[in-house]
């Protein structure tokens, strides 16, 4: 009788240990999955931030280029009008010579 009770107690202890081990394994797996998800989300956020920064830099460069182009065009136009003015002033002198 005592042997049967001991065997039953041992079986119950083994079952409890197995259940605890299974619960620990499940918790570890869940923690690993959560860590992997956090890492993936972090990488995606970093990539999105880098892409946004690159787009902003490209837009700023395009704006600067457009400003410089318009500045160069207006400078070229003003230079060409200055050249015409100089020619109109020097034309009578050239004709005289």
From TrEMBL:
Keywords: Membrane, Transmembrane, Transmembrane helix. It comes from the Eukaryota. The keyword Transmembrane applies. The chain crosses the membrane at residues 7-37, 43-65. This is Uncharacterized protein. It comes from Dreissena polymorpha.
